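Thread: Modeling a multi-component assembly for a lab meeting

Hi all, long-time lurker, first post. My supervisor asked me to bring a structural picture of a complex we are working on to next week's group meeting, and I have zero experience with this. I have the sequence lines for every component (806 residues in total). Could someone generate the structure of the whole assembly? Inputs are pasted exactly as I received them:
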Amino acid sequence: MSARYGMVIDLDRCAGCGACMVACAAENNVPPASPRATPRTGLTPMLVRKVSNGMEGTARREAFIPITCMHCGNETPCVSVCPQQAVEVDKSTGIVMQMPQRCLGCRYCMAACPYHARYFNWWDPAWPVGMEKSLNPEVAVRMRGVVEKCNLCHARLHSAKEKAAAAGRKEIDHADYIPACVEACPTGAILFGDLSDESDPVFSAAHFPNAFRLLARLGTEPNVYYKSEQAWVRALAERDTERATEGKHV
Amino acid sequence: MKVSRRDLLIGSAGATAGLLLTPVPWKLLGDVSIWTQNFPWIPQPVHGPVETKYSVCTLCDGGCGIRVRMAANCPVGVAGVSSHPLTKGALCPLAFAAHQLNWHPRRLREVRHAGRAASWAEAQAAFEKACVEGPIAIVDGRPGRAVSSVFEAFTRKHNGSYRVVLSAESQALAPYAAWSGVPVTSLGYDLENARTVVSFGAPVLDGWGTPGRFTRLWSERAAGAADPQLRLIQIEPSLSRTAARAWRWVPVREGSEAELAAGVARVLLEEHLVTPQGPMPQLSLAEAAAQAGLTTEAIRNLARTMVENRPVVVIAADGNPAIAALNVLLGAVAAPGGIVRKRRRVQSHIPADPVPGRLRAVLVDSTVPWEFAAPTDAEVFRFAAWDGGGNGAGWLLPAPGFLEELTDVPTSPTSALETYAVALNLAVPPTEVQSAAQFLLQIDPTLPTGEKVIHAHCEEIFRARQGTVYGEHPIAVTKLDSAQHLEEQLRKGAVWMGDPQSAGKFRCELKEWPMENCVSHASSWARAWAPPVFPPLATKLYQESNLREPPAGRQA
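Re: Modeling a multi-component assembly
Sure thing. I ran the full set together rather than chain by chain. Output:
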């Protein structure tokens, strides 16, 4: 099996509800916020940011940009800086994998990631008493001191592979592998699939005239595409992502 | 051979360098990393057989279909159901972590009386005594359920009164009920056939009604299109989440929605944009514009845009009659794409506010919003799964939490069609809980049980031979062989939906233009969420990101 899994996120459909964020956290056993956590120190492998066109009054327009690991396909910045080989690209899927067992918590990868899509686990994962019974048994809980990020719900890919193997198939059924954020999106704004398969709807969506990638000029070939009819939203793609997503741009 | 200090240093440096060339330090480093990932105090998921069950969310009255992943008989994941006729797989963001609510630190775990621990027997004895001593009232937050029948039967037998607390969405339909005589629970919005939706502050893309119903419609027919099939016009003072995604946003001055509605009505009538179906507002267009903080031209444009693409329906955030009157004027009442009647036979309910005076006791069901405070000196028996804090109820009684109770889910307040579903008790409560109906049944065992009422309702639907059951595959009720078969389907998570009723069977008559000083409050995202607490993972939405403002009065 060889695929290049990726997403096309239609920003004109994103209503900014945050369902993808909560579904992602629930699926991947991400703990609730420590009382001391802030937007800088939080743990949000899927993060929806509010952006604006910088105008005020009736001319103001806002949009929501879900930011997750871009699963860069070329010169993946986090892979080359990791001293522990805790990050690697799975060539059969295109998924940039993070292995918390190998991670030393040096955070070089966080500094290298141009999309700020990696998060450091500042606190021991903790749930209110008894709530551990509600954790997803297919995903291990990560320890304090490691870096976390989106792995395209790799546990779901494993389940799909197991199901295919049980049925005697070599290829997974694409309907069996849908990441939690894609499944949760109430407006269907996130399209997921194999970007290398021309028959996959995600392939044609990625080649849509108004499709773009964040910071494409860096040449990292992200596997997460965005789409918008609004010129001001597209213009954000090549700007300083951090400033723009904090709404400080003009 | 004499070993000098220099030799020792050279030897040490060489040994260190040599060691780095062996796998030992790296293996050690790796092992330490793995070991530190497995500290015994790190919570581990519970392992056991994994299965999927289908049910209905009961945390608000939206009635969304849910797919629950269970491991070792515990819910470990919640997702939407794509075959659900209303939500089509969409859920509100909080539902995805709803399975964690049952272990929330504010879960009510014991009976409390006046702030002290008490027992179920004491609570029961106190309520029985109250029933003997004087009139009682039972307040219900979601009328039409099987347990509502238990409440009504109990109040009939024990000299009591049955009262309801309506949701904001139901209250927004109250003016039509007052003008037409049709009970408010029998009305709904036919959004599927509307082409223009004008929302006066209702968060239609942010949890309003059945979350997901309008969001799906908007996504399919409007999102991103310059000239969409479904036009959403949001009238709201600030650029809310809904306003940001609307086709047009009209920034009205806060609290002047009624004046803007009057201004729009005046334009509609003066420019003959509608068939006159109502009285002319007294407010002039210039006055309306001045109060709404808009220009007269903006109001004219708004009125013209509203009728450009019909059917049009106006949605208010609450029961502001001036906004409701616009639908009468636009001919959107009892018409496709407007306000429709979803049920023929339904009884009207008496609102809980005000509670009648001289009551001995008030029993408040767990579906009643935590903020509801019975304005009475009577002894209050408050059922709740979570303690919202600051409630002065005399008795606090732990009720079943999320998916801990078998209950039926009647039609959502905003739905255009009648629906019926059953939510199973999939989770085991962490403490001894009782629903209000179970509590009453212990006092009076002659009452019909909730299960019996569900059987009877299924019989009724089966006998009427209309509608469709949406499970894995839709099945018409006429193709089912028995009421038991229907109930089995519902218990597997299917939802029954009635056939469209013929509209036009009721009329709203306006004698004069309503101009009550009723301020529309834009709903916050937390308002539609019934429990007084949030799932802890909701912190992702506001504490660990800047996506949303912190929910006032709710603790995650």
